[in-house]
Amino acid sequence: MSELASHSTDYSVIESEPPEVMGRNLRVGAHLWSSATAFFFVAFLFTYFYLRSLNNHGLWHPKGVKPPVTLGTLIAIAVAVSAIASLAAARRLRAGDRGAFRSLGLVALALGIAAIVLQIVVFSTVGFGPTDGAYASVFLAWSGFYMVFVAGTMYWLEVLLATSFRYRSQVASEPGEASGDPDRMGDDIARPLSLQSPGADAFAFTWGVLAGIGVLTWIILYLI
Amino acid sequence: MKLRRLIGFNLLTAVILGVIGFYVGWWLGTLFKGPSIDYLGDTQQNDVSLFIGYFTGVLGFLVGLGFANYPVQRMLGKPASLRAKETEGKARYFGLCTDHKVVGIQYLIGIGAFIFIGGLNAMLIRYELITPNQHAWNGNNYLTLVGLHGTMMMGMMTSGILGPFANYLVPIMIGARRMAFPRIEALTFWLLMAAGAILMTAIAFGGFPTGWTGYAPLIDQANMGVDAYIAFFAIVGLSMCLLGLNMVATVITMRAPGMTWGRLPIFVWGQFSTAILMLLAPPVLISTLLMVMLDRTAQTGFFNDQIGGSSYLYENLFWFFGHPEVYILALPGMGILLEILPVFTRKPLWGYKLAVSGLMGIALLSWLVWQHHLFMSGINADLRPFYMLSTELISLPTGFIFICALGTLWAGRIRLTSPMLFCLAWLFNFLIGGLSGVFLSDVPSDVTTHGSFFSMAHFHYTIMGALLFSFFGGIYFWLPKMTGIKLNERLAKAHFWVMFIAFNSTFGPLLVIGFLGMPRRAVTYAGYLQGANTWVSVSAFFLGGSMLIFLFNFVWSLVFVREPAGDNPWNSKSIEWQLPSPVPVHNFDRIPTFGPDPYPYGHAGSDAIPPRPAVAPTRHTQ
Lengths: 224, 622
Description:
Strand content of chain B: under 5%
Shape of chain B: globular
Low-confidence stretches of chain A: 8-12, 175-180
CATH architecture of the largest domain in chain B: Up-down Bundle
Strand content of chain A: under 5%
Oligomer: heterodimer
Number of strands of chain A: 0
Helix content of chain A: 55-70%
Number of helices of chain A: 5
Structural class of chain A: mainly alpha
């Protein structure tokens, strides 16, 4: 039998992983996810410039296909301010101010949802359809899928806020640490608040990158 | 209790909810059906229904497995619910389990099943090609078989080594108890299974004529069967991306003390370099397939030249993913090769740093070569030299791998076990694959060989000859560790020799047939090629038959004979072999500390893991 491990079911001697590992996982995972997200939108960026440069049959951007610049600008402002608010919220949480985290987090969530609602307004009022040239196709698909990513990211923020509100009277705990359940291999946690700060940092980074992509989207689809 | 288990979150519930989900989605789709793009006339097809059906079907499947519990709980601000025991019993293999070793074995069986189906398709293709004239399948069915074979193999085998072997072994090799994100790890496997099932439904909707590359404008124009191809590859892309993310995060964050970057086993480097590609390349594929989906449903014009799009755009986007994909298939096998060679030569890996730079160099260069697939598609002539040179440059880091392998073999005490034989075959096959690849990277010769059986034989040499041989090498090497049961070595060697000879007897002549002008994806061919094609078909049947030897060995050894393998049957010095077979649930009682030398062969008494104090630690005990 190896000295490194045994088939003993007495898990009381099993050493837990270091407590900081789970927080580090979240941060690294957020960076990697943001990279993958960027590559997802690189395809749309390439498509935009490729089709624009080809201008097949002169149908890249036919006359009359005009995006609603005001609404687009409002969307870009909403995501940018929301990302700044979430960065501030994460910073406040790191400093131990959970109340400020919740307040700023709610602002970020409201603005994120507002961006989605505004995008729906854009889709329902825009004066062109998917068949109206290549630009129309790129515009509708790029901004539509961007909002799918925004919705997913807002779900993450909602999880952070819901946990913070549910355990608002509980004392904050050490970072990380698994549940200690010997029957699980998963990354469930014993103290729900222990991953709040690394979670908020990871979220703020992801949302910051996505908001950056949003601003780039606005520049390319509405301004150029 | 049994009834409760039966109706709980498991595979049975998942399949039932998946089917219900599909039909609910189909019905929803009929509520807002729009006319699909169909250049050949209105065929009353409803792509909207099918895509929504696939989406809700996969959703139902995942809900049935229990994947919705965690996000819903977290949405309510609650910590994750603790499910029943995950550490015991066979039931954990049929549901959501977050133990990386269970997921590894799930991958092995699941992917194995789909590869078997893909292989059967290949047999049917070769049956048709026994004679020059159409005799078994009509043109559409033949193209569907070709498409199903290629798509299934390319989709499934991208995770063919990372899924079973890396999921199982990487955490152990770096001294961790788990992957960084265990639920995501489980999700990647079940997404892949859902995708495989979806691809099979293509037959019910008329098949698809596009092959595995799905070129536009055909992919925009084809009938509903191609929707299965689109959904399959998009889901596979998502699975790949998440698998890559998890693997990269695990290697970055979960390494035990002493496991520095310079001490990572070369197998881990192989998986790490692959995982970087898996993280970044599939998102482009997913975007592309979503564009195709919109072309076919919302009537956007991304790939439709008539409304400002371009079919060349598809080729660019697809191969921006597709060429890194080729190295996603090749790199993990190199990791297996270089990990196994030191064990059976009793020598340290020769040129560790060179091997690492080779693996990472290939990963880096794979982003710069995709346009060589478009040499024949009218790309700007000025771009050709760059892509020709960048493609040829890849032979440099690939050469590093060969040098390291040959350096390790040199003057080693070679043991010709079954895993070693598969590794040696890898060297032979990949050399032919690489040399034939030079012809395809050179513009003048590519003009002659593009789209022929030559290019088909080339990529079978690189992908099947390398990936599948290293896959089987890995199975014979690590299955005793994964199961604690030894496979019959004599049958393993019989499998190897039949597979190796039949493989070369199949694809070697195909290189020549391609040079003689036989195009890919054509159901008929010139009469003078019949003799060679009959030879190839018979060889292919032997190749298929070799898989039956493996299957027989697998079942015979694991189910009937069950001879215990022991903890270290190969006398390896790497850490997974210092653990009991099969590996205990928590891998290690204590997180190990690693010494400086990952391959301490040839030094008496040396070990990768330094001696440890025999007391249980007091810090962080549960």
